[in-house]
Each structure stands twice: as structure tokens, then as C-alpha cells.
Amino acid sequence: MNELSRQATLNPIHAPHAACSQCNLQELCLPVGLTTAELSTIDHLVSERRKVARGDALFCSGDHFTAIYAVKLGFFKTEVLSEDGRHQVTSFYMAGEVLGMDGISAETHHCDAIALEDSEVCLIPFNQLESVSLKVPTLQRHLHRVLSREIVRDQGMMMMLGAMRAEERVIAFLLNLSQRYIARGYAAADFNLRMTREEIGSYLGLKLETVSRAFSHLQEEGLVQVEKKRIRLMDTARLKKLLSHDDASR
Amino acid sequence: MNELSRQATLNPIHAPHAACSQCNLQELCLPVGLTTAELSTIDHLVSERRKVARGDALFCSGDHFTAIYAVKLGFFKTEVLSEDGRHQVTSFYMAGEVLGMDGISAETHHCDAIALEDSEVCLIPFNQLESVSLKVPTLQRHLHRVLSREIVRDQGMMMMLGAMRAEERVIAFLLNLSQRYIARGYAAADFNLRMTREEIGSYLGLKLETVSRAFSHLQEEGLVQVEKKRIRLMDTARLKKLLSHDDASR
DNA sequence: CGCAATTTTGATTTTGATCAACTTCTGTGG
DNA sequence: CCACAGAAGTTGATCAAAATCAAAATTGCG
Questions:
Q1: Among B91, B164, B199, B219, which is disulfide-ready with B168 (CB 3.0 to 4.6 Å)?
Q2: Out of A201-215, B4-18, B177-191, which region has the weakest mean confidence (pLDDT)?
Q3: Which is nearest to A145 in space by CA: B199, B133, B144?
Q4: Which CATH number fits domain A2-159: 2.60.120.10, 2.40.50.140, 3.40.50.720, 2.60.120.280?
């Protein structure tokens, strides 16, 4: 193990050393609740920062899996595509979130990860992460939490896709984004979308026209302000009520 | 760690000791590719077998998370329910599959797990599993694979819910079941559904009438034989083609 | 600045939901 | 073992939500 971390230290490939212990995203990313000593172990783990230009892929479906990635800066989408042309956006990732964990099971990625704006990620080589987490139980536990959180998130998504009508999905989407911006210390109710209506639609299982109409309608109702990509939530309470209240039909 | 495994050994609560090393589901469940020595370590890990009668819950949403469960025998569904009455089936689990991993992230389960027939599970206390996997890297790796496989599976599900039409979903569902029966050595094309049309519908984001109509239509086309719960796939090749071929629209 | 991409809005069509009636099945108790 | 009640499943008619088609307006890259 030691030679691995030394190698990383000697090998600042693209950027100055990552230094989780200094990172302001600390509590959002992998190293939650570690002691200072443990944290500095992790510093050696994160071997590399990588810049990804808007529109470029961080990894593609079929790529050999070697690492997971913590978003340091920017915004990503992941999408799966089936043999036929069909494809669907499965997630959006913002700073502090970890992506690429779909690759663990078969050592091959099952989706494409595309940067929606110029972005930067911390690369965490997975077998090093596994080695270190054998030594640092707190890290192992946290890794399991991160993996499990992804499972829970996906289940919520399935619920949304299976049981909500179009406008509800859009509301849920906006509230979820807002929630995540709050966690990052940004304004809860005023943010810019980084993705197109089409990408939102794909994510929500809707056509882009339907997303656009939902935005317009929510605006008419005074619930949100939509100004191209800028979204302002005008009445979060009522939005939440619209979600939880609706006819428990489907 | 030792006292934990001893405790387990001394404590055959409901059934004779589980004995992964003897289990015929071995290669489907947790202990893949372990050495004999490693396997016997795991024997001590699986502390208990538990029977769950048809209709009973293995765990419920909100329950404190302590263990994951390998299905030894039988069939389960998991369903999430939101604050309002809305609920949705998120997965089905058959023998050899592992469930309960949604609970890791917050040490609380996020769904209900209900037995669809009289079933039996092996209970794997999660913090013991974590402890042991600190000692057995192969096990740690395998655990990560199992977690990741769940993520990949969910992504496929999202694709299905977001991008397929009703009949395609039903076909995908049947082919998936068939696939999993094959992996268990059962007939690929002739099996009994353990769930109702309503549960299938909930899982697929459809109403039960729609599922029923899809079955009828597929039968008219000579693609499947439906006889109450018994399903025979008459033309797997064509079914697959229907899935991959369809207009790559949505 | 100009052109391609994105977005909005409207008209129409399609899919699947809903409502309803009827049949079949299952399991329980007499 | 049969009768029966409730659950599960099928099928048809109608309706509503979202997709599709189409056109115009806006935006933002290069």
C-alpha cells in the first residue's frame, strides 16, 4: 500500500496535489467524519485532478473501470444507451458528488458521463480506495454509505418515473436541485439550470415540449419564475404540497 | 471479531447453522470466488436463517438497519411509499439474490420487503460483514460488486420506466425474469409468476389492466402463452427483437 | 454577427388510465 | 368436499395526459 501512495505523491500528473484535507467540499464528498490522521491518508489516495471540457466525456459506456470521481467543480450528466438508439439521462452530478460507481460490478462502465460545463474532478483509483479502506474502517463504512445512497436515490427516481404525472416530476426535479444547492451553501430558490429541456425531459421520462409546458404552467401559477435557464422558486411550500398531496392513484 | 463469530456459532436461533460453504446457491449470493478458508470465515458470519410467511414483511420502511439478507428460498418484493398514499414496487428478489442494501446509507430501511410466498432468508449482520471484509479483501471486493450491481440494475430500470412503452416494458420484464431463472438452472422459457398483475403494473409504472392487455396481445401474436400465473415464452428471439428494435423515439 | 441549437406555443393524435361489468380463481369454514 | 366470498384477472368503452407534428421565436456559440 505504501508504495502506491508514494507513487501518487510523486506523480502530480495534471494538477497540484488534490489534498482532501484542504478541500472545501470535504463534508460532501468521500471523507466524512474522518480524523485528521485518516484524512491525510486519503490525500495520498486522490492521485490526480482532471479537467473535463463542456461536452466532453469523463468516461463512456464500455470503458474499463479503474476509478470513481468526485466532482470538484462543474456539472455532469450520466446517460445509458441501449443497443438501439434509445438513450436516457440517469443522473446529474454537481460539485461534491461522486460518480462512476456503476463500473464496480463488472469493472466496466455502464453509462456515459458527460460534462455539462467546464468541470474538474478528483480521480480516486478504486483498487487503491479498497486497499486503504481495509486499513481505515471509517472510510470503508463511508464508502458503503455512498454506494447505498446511490441505491436509495435511484429508488426514489424509479418512484418518480413510475408513479408521478408530468408536472409533478418537474416539481420534484426542481425541489431536488434546490435541496442540493442548499447543501452546497448556494441560494435555495434561485439557480441556473445547467442542462437543456431535452436533457431534463430524458431524465424525467418526458419529451422536451412537455417540460417546457410544465415550466410555463408553473410560472402562470406564480409558483416559479422561469427566465431561460434561470429558475426562481417563488413558493416552495406550495410546491411541496403539490407533490405530496396529489391523488394517490397510479 | 472472534467473539462475534463465536457468539454466532453458539446461537443457532431459528435453524441449523447456515453454512455458506455447503449452500447450493453459493455462486449467486455473497461468497463468490472465495477460497475454502475464506468461505468458512463467512459461515460464522451468517448468523441466522429466518422464515418469512407469504405476505409478511422481512423489514419495513423506517426499521433500523442491522443486516442484509440473502434469499435462500422463496420470492420477495420491495416497495417504497411516499408520505401520501403513493407506493411503488421497486424490485423483486428471488433465491440467491441479496436485499436490504438500501438501509446502509442512513442505517434505516427506505422500503418494505414483503414475501410473495413462504420464504427463507439468511441474515447477514452488516457490521459483522464490514468487520470481516476488513480481513478478507476478496469479500470486500465482492460486497462492492453486489452494491454496484444493484446500482446498475436500478439504472436499467430507470431506462425502462423512462424510455419504453407499455408492451415493451412487459416484454423486458418477462425476459429479465427468464434470464434470472436461467441463472438458477430453471427452465428459461416456462415459469410461474409469483406476483399479481397489480404488482407487475406497479413495478413497471403501469395499471394492472394495461399489463393484462399486454399479456393478451402478446399471446395473440404467438409470442407467449399466458395461463393465469404460468408464462411460457414461445419466441424469445422475436421478443428480444421487439425490444431492441423499436422506434428509438422517446 | 449569423446560423444552428434551443425553446415556446399551438393543433392533433396516440397511448395508457379510468370506469365498469363480468369471469375465474383461491382459500376458508361448514 | 362443496359452497361461497373476496381477490385477481380479463375485456370493453370512454377519457385524459402526454407524445407527436409543426411553426415561430429566442438564444448562444463560433
A1: B164
A2: B4-18
A3: B144
A4: 2.60.120.10
